[in-house]
Every structure is written in C-alpha cells, then in structure tokens.
Amino acid sequence: MMDVLRPVLININGRIYRKNHIQEEDYEEEEEEEEDYSYSQTDVEQCLEEPCDTHNIEQTEKGFRCAIDVPSVLYKYIIGKKGETRKRLESETKTSISIPKQGEEGQIVVTGAQQAAVVSAVTRVEVLIDSFRRKQPFTHFLSVALNHPQVQEGFVRFSEEVLERCHQDAGVDGSIFQNPAKLHITIGTLVLLNEQEVTRARELLQQSQETIRDITEGKALPVEVRGIEYMNDDPSMADVLYAKVSAKDGSKKLQQIADRLVECFVSAGLMERQWDRVKIHCTVMNTLFRKDPSAEAKRKQGKLNGKDREAFDARNILKEFGEFYFGTFDLNCVHLSQRFSTDCTGHYSSAGQINFT
Fold first, then answer.
1. Whole-angstrom distance, CA of residue 80 vs CA of residue 69
2. Whole-angstrom distance, CA of residue 178 vs CA of residue 326
3. Is the pLDDT of residue 265 over 50?
4. Residue 273: which pLDDT band, with cuts at 50, 70 and 90?
5. Pairing between β-strand 221-230 and β-strand 240-247 as defined by DSSP bridges
C-alpha cells in the first residue's frame, strides 16, 4: 500500500515521472552481436500511464516529429538485442524511431501520424534511458580540492606515522592511503556521457557562482582539516577512514555551499539526491585503493564491489590519531572534476570551476 501512496519518482530534464512497479529481470553481459544487446524488455514499461505533453513536437507534412538528445553510449539500450526494443516501442506506439549509428553523436528522432503517439514514444524512450543511465558508473563529481601544500604535508606525516605505529594491525599497509595530490571533498556525483552533458553541467555550475558568493560574502573561506572518523559501525573491520573538514570560524558556510550546489543540480535533473545533507569529509584511507593489478580497470567498469575489498583494523589509528591536525588553508573554489583523470598538478582534471572571490 505504501508503494502506491508514496511511489518512486524520477526526475528527467526537470519533469517528474512516477515509476510503475515491475519485477526486473537480471541479465549477464553477452557478447556483442552486430551491435545488438540483450536487456530487460520490461524496462520499456517503466513509464507514466499518461504521457507528458511538454515535449517540443513539430508538425510536418506527414504528421508529427520530435528529436531528443541522447548520448551515443545509450543507443544500444533503445535498440535492444537484434533491434527488439526499438521494434516493440514502434509497434506499441505506432511510431518510427530513427537512431544514429553507434558511436555517432546525434539525436533520436521519433515520427508518427498522431501527436499523442509521438509524445508517448518519446516519454517511453526518456524513461528507458533514465533507467539505464542510473546503472552507469559516475563520470564526474563536484569537488572541493584539499591538495593545498600544508594539508598534503600533514597527510604525508599522518600516513608515515600510521604505518610506523600501526603497521601490525590487520589490513593496514601503504596501498590503502589516498594519493596526497588528490585529497578532496566530494559534494555530489554525476553521470555525464558526452561533451554536451559536460557543457550543461559546467554552465549550471557557473550559474551557481553568484549564489555561492553570497554565502562566502565574496571572500575565500578559511577551512581546517582535523580529526579522523570511520564510515561503518565496526572500527575493527573498516573500509574507509576520512578526515573531518570545517570552516575555521566555526560557521556552517562550507555545509551551506555543498547543500546549495546539490539542490541546484538535483533540481536540474543532473544529480540524484543521496542524503538530506552532504557529508563533509575527505577520504584518507580506503580499501578500494589496495594494490590490485585489475582494480583500476574494475573501478572504471563499475565492477568492483564490497566482496573485492579487504577491510582493515582501524581501532588503534582512531585511538592514536583521532584528533590529528592536517592543516589549514583558504578555500576559494569548487570544481567539476573528471573521474579517473589527473592534471599537471596530480589532482583530478577539472571540466569547470567557480571561485568564491
């Protein structure tokens, strides 16, 4: 009953859809067969009972037409194995769906004799695309860089002292420490699948600049990195330790900046809300960093999960370094960072940024 009263809602390009309850089927990856793929046909049915009428539908000599932007990496989900998904969509909505060749960026074009039929087909395509987009590993993230020299020096000192005093604790070794050049706060993650989507995210970040400057009063924000906490409820079997970050003046400005940015990106449909408030933290130890020749490849493919991780005993680290001081610096920008990238400083490559001053 509660599923009916409080259904799952999906935000697509600023429009809210109700997700109908269906029983999803699991499919394993199959070998490619002439660019056709095997995916659950029931995903097609995850759409509204009544189609949305806010699409830009053009009237033509032969009927109606609507073009929608879809990243090329997602075409295969609309095509389906041997074209079955597209055929089913066309048959059920009495429309024709034109899709660019795989690897070519363009628009999916839906045409039909009736306007309502075109709207219905476009709605189904968008909800189907959203369903598979949610299964993609994130590609970018809004971040606050903490790779200031003082903080990096403090982190190196922390890692050296931990290895010296706690190296005998189960699972503790040098491979699970963060790269000092990539210390950061993650504000929120995004799935951006082509340059157009990256540009849209960059522009949205730029539009947020004045709002953020109102919070900082046009000044850099002094922040302090101090103290260690853990993520799970058992410090003897930890996967992540993080450093706490706060505004040096004791204000909530850093929290306000993060929450405001998330609200902006969620409202635009570019980010999914995970928590009521952003958890302000900087990862310093993570078992996903543990040396494994295939770990980087697995992470890029989104295939590395909890079963692949070897936890560590963090009890002594928390006891001896719980109030460790990493450093203080003036924070002045937020980045749109690219995952699995490195710039000339060793930090993540930035696809855009806003400054506080």
1. 18
2. 14
3. yes
4. confident
5. antiparallel
Q: What is the pLDDT of residue 55?
A: 63
Arithmetic mean of pLDDT, 74-83: 93
Angle at 190 between CA 334 and CA 336, to 5 degrees: 25
d(CA 114, CA 65): 9
What CA–CA distance (Å, rounded) separates 289 from 173? 11
DSSP strand E in 32-120: where? 58-60, 63-69, 96-98, 107-112
Look at the pTM and tell me if it is higher than 0.85: no
Q: Is the dihedral of CA 265, 202, 183, 314 positive or negative?
A: positive
CA distances from 308 to 39, 168, 173, 288 (A): 26, 22, 17, 8
Cβ(73)–Cβ(103) under 8 Å? no
Res 299 pLDDT > 60: no
- How far is the C-alpha of 254 from the C-alpha of 138, rounded, in Å? 23
- Helix, strand, or coil here: 45? helix
What backbone phi and psi angles, to 5 degrees, belong to 58? -100, 140
Q: Give the separation between CA 161 and CA 291, rounded to whole angstroms.
A: 20
pLDDT in tens, 176-201: 999 999 999 999 999 999 999 999 99
Secondary structure E strands in the chain: 9-12, 15-18, 58-60, 63-69, 96-98, 107-112, 140-145, 184-190, 221-230, 240-247, 281-286, 325-331, 333-338, 350-355
pLDDT at 309: 84
Looking at per-residue pLDDT, the higher value among 47 and 139 belongs to: 139
* Among 312, 143, 147, residue whose Cα is nearest residue 230: 312
Q: In the prediction, which pLDDT does 104 show? A: 87
